[in-house]
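RESIDUES AND SHAPES:
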Amino acid sequence: MTEVESATLHLRPGLRQEERLDAMTELVLGAGTIRIDELSEVFAVSTMTVHRDLDLLDQKGILRKSRGAATAVASSLFEASTEYRIRQSKQAKKAVALAAFELIEPGQAVLMDDSTTGLHLARLLPEKVPLTVITNFQRVADLLVDNAGIQTIMTGGQFYRWCDAYMGTLALNAVHSLRADIVFMSSPAVTNGVCYHQHHDAVLLKQAMVEAAEHKVLYLDNTKFTMRALHAHLKISDFDTVIVDSGTAPEHIAQIEETGVNLIIAAV
């Protein structure tokens, strides 16, 4: 066990299952990955009990079991859960969202994907009403639905717990039937000017969203350039504007500049 893990994992015996599930979630989301035998030690329960607990959390899309460990981090095959993504790079995401907010005009139809950067943007939108917001992200809709100045349109479709978002044929049909003034989206991974995602349904929906919008905006915090994912979905050059935070490495900024898109560097 590393020093960081030792400092994080305090013994928590005698908890009821509901309390243990909450505490286990907090530990794994904080550490990213923790071995099952360590969780067994922390909660003073058998490894079989930990496996059963993790199966429940896996079914909810919060955590997953992987090679004897509980993990919340993304891999090339699996996207991290919304709960984990919300906790990552908060300041960078806020800076990028603020820069994106400046591109919006009252009266526009704004299309948003399930990026957690969009949650920071959604909290700013009431300052630009009236607006129409189209999204497949349940958490964005929850933030906006009670605002009288914002008309919220959900795509519908198959609900995926791991991202709190709707995808699939119904979502695609909804996006294809609409036209937005501007779209904001992110990508879990960007490599050599190409955006990648771990889930094929997300790839199809992102492509449809770009086709449905007049102005296309990609916003990325600096961690996206070090991640890997399986499916290519769009190129940097498919966007009109790309927003990154000031912590982005110079070589990645140079790659974006070479495409000729409008580049905005948001100060963190």
The longest helix spans residues 17-31. The chain has two domains: 3-73, 89-266. The domain at 89-266 is CATH 3.40.50.10470 (Rossmann fold). The radius of gyration is 20 Å.
